Amino acid sequence: MSYFVGIDVGASTTKAIIINEKREILGFSVNDSGVDFQAAAEQAFEDSKVKATVPVSNESFIISTGYGRRNVPFANTTKTEISCHARGSFHDFPHAHTLIDIGGQDSKIIKVHTSGKRISFKMNRKCAAGTGAFLEEIANRLKIPIGELNDLAEKAEEEVQLGSYCTVFTATEILTKIREGVEVENLVRGIFGAVIKRAMEMDPLEGNIVMSGGVVAYNPFFVEMFGEKLGKKIFVPPLPQFTGAFGAALYAWEEKGGQNA
Amino acid sequence: MSEKKKSKIKKIQSTGHLRKIMADYFYELNDASKKGSPKIAWCTSVGPAELLLSLGFLVHYPENHGAVLGSSRTANDYIPVANAIGYSPDICSYLTSDVGAFIKKETPLSRGYEGIEGVPKPDVLVYNTNQCRDVQEWFNWYSRELKVPCIGISSYRNIGEIKDYHLEAIVGQIKDLIPTLEKISGNKFDIDKFKSILALSRDCTRLWKKVLETNTAAPAPISFFDETIHMGPAVVLRGSETAVEYYTVLLKELEEKAAQKDGAVEGEKFRLYWEGMPIWGKLRNLAEFFIDLKTAVVASTYCNSWIFDAFDPDDPFTSMARAYTEIFIVRDEKFKENYIEGMVKQYKLDGILFHDAKTCPANSNNRYGMPERLEKKLNIPALTINGDLNDLRCYSEEQAQTNIEAFIEQLETK
After folding, report:
1. Taking CB atoms and an 8 Å cutoff, what residues of chain A touch B411?
2. Cross-strand partners of A3
3. B99 interfaces chain A, CB cutoff of 8 Å
4. Which one of A67, A80, A125 has the shortest CB-CB distance to B406?
5. Do both A73 and A10 map to the same domain?
6. Which CATH number belongs to the domain containing residue A28 in this structure?
7. pLDDT tens, A200-245?
8. Are B364 and B357 in contact (CB under 8 A)?
C-alpha cells in the first residue's frame, strides 16, 4: 500500500495530511509552526500518522509546501503553496473558480481554470492587514481569545467601519472606538469586514468563489459575511485549513503515477 | 572549513576589462576633484552628458553612485540619515541613500577603489527631469549644501507621439545651459567637439543595443542581472572611445556564446521580461534563484533605456532632445504597452515580471493596470513583485521567491 503526504508549513501553523491510492484522506493534523519548522513538520506528520484510520508505513511520498517548505528535509520534493492550494481546491470543487485563501501571514487569490490549471494568482502586499495575523493582533489588543471572535461577530448588531489598511493604525482606531463606547461585538464584526475589504481589493472576485485557510476554518460567520458582501454563495472545502497540505498530497499522488502508484 | 561556495553564475570574460575601465573612470574623477581641474559636472543619468563632455567637464552620475550603494548593500545604512533630515522614506531611495552617505562622509567607492575617500566635488549640477522630479530635488539638496549652481532641463512626462514643439522646447532649454556651463568650465562651446562626442555616444549606444539583442538567441548568453552591471559604461562613459571599445569586446564574446549555445542559464526552459528597476542589493540572489528555476530573464526596460537611437551628429541639438525625450520613462501608457509587446515578440518571452519599486513610481509600471492589460492582449502571464531599487526594508525575499516560484510552476503547466 502506498501513501501520499502533504505537509504545509505555514508561518503560523503546520498542517499534514495523508491520502491513499484512491486519494482518500486517512489522517490529518495541525500544530503551531513555532520557530523550528522542521520539528513542526515532523510533529504534524507523526500526529497525522497516529490519527490515521489505518497504520501508515514510512514508505510514503512526501511533498512539502508553504512558507517553511524548504525546512522539511524528509520531504521528497517541494511545491509552492500557490500551486498546492489550487490543486487541493480543484479536487473538492472541480469547476472554474476563484480561490480566496486567508492564511496566517498572507492571503492569496488564485484563479483556477475549468481544466484545473491555474490562470493567475495574487498575494497580499507586504502588510499584515487582510490576514490571520491582523485578527490575532486585534484580538490581542481587545484581550479576546481568538476562538471567541466568530461568536462575537455573529452577535453584533452592526459592523463598525474601520478606515485604515494598516494594522497599527487600525489598532489605534479601535482604541478610539472603545473610548467612544462602541460595543466590542460591533468592533469584531468591523475587523472581519476590514479583512474582507482587503481581499476584495486584491482582484475582481468573479465566478464561483471558494474559500480556504485557518481564518475560514474557525470563523464560519466570516465566510457568511464575505458571501453577503459579494452577493453570492461561497463554497468551503471540508477541511479548509488543509487545502494546501491536501493539494501537496495530491501532487505527491500524481508524481508517483496516480492510481498506478 | 571555510570553503567558498561556488557561484552558479557563469563568468563573462569581459568583466575584467569592465572593472579596469570603471576603476579608471572613478580614479580620473577623484584626481580631478583633488586638483580642482578639469571641472566636474554632476549629471542625471539621462541628462545632457554629451554637452558637458564637449565643454571639457568630467561627469559624475549620482544615480550610478546610487546603484553602487544598492549593489554594495550599504544603502540601508544611509537611507535613515536622509529620512531624519526630512527626506521621506517614500521618495527615491537613490536620493536618500546618496544624500545619507554624503552626510556621513562615506562612500562604498572607498571599499572598491583604494585611495578614494569620497564622491568627486561638483562644480555644477545638471539635471534632466526626464527620469523623475526626484532627481531635481536631489541636485537641489547638493546645490544648497555645497553652494554649487544647479541648472537643468524640465522634460515632458507621459507623452505619446513626440511633436516638433516638444523638441523645440527641449532644444531651447539645452541651449540655455551653454552660457552658464561656458562660464564654469572656462571653455567656449565648440559645435564640432559636441558633434564628435555625440557620434561616440551614438556608436556606444548602437553597440549596447547589439549586446542586448544577442539575447534574442535561445539560450540567451547573458542574464538581465549581469546586463545591469555591464551597462555601467553605457551610463557613465558614453561619449568616449573607451565605452565603444568595451562594447566591441563584450559584443564579440556574447555573439560567440550565442553561436555556441552557451546560455547564461543552463537548460533554459523559460524566458522572461523584467519591467522596472533592478533590486540592486539582491542581484546575485535573484540571478542564482532564476538559474535554479531554469529561467532566463533575457530582456528589460531598464537596460534598454540606455539605447538612444536618435543621436545624429549632423543635427546634434534636436537629435539629442529627441533621444532624451523618446525614452520609455517619458512616454504614455499606450506607448509603453506597445513597446513591451514588441519586446515580448522580439525575444520570444513566456512571461513578464513587474517590479513594483516602493520608492520609484516612475519606474513602476504595474500601478495603472498594465500587467492585467498585457496578460489579456498577449496571452502570457504577468507577475508583480514588491520591492525597491535600494531600500531593502521594502523587500521580502521569501514572499518574492514564493511568487516567482509559483509563477514558474504556472508556466510549467501551461
Report:
1. none
2. A60
3. no
4. A80
5. yes
6. 3.30.420.40
7. 888 889 899 999 999 999 999 999 999 999 999 999 999 999 999 9
8. yes
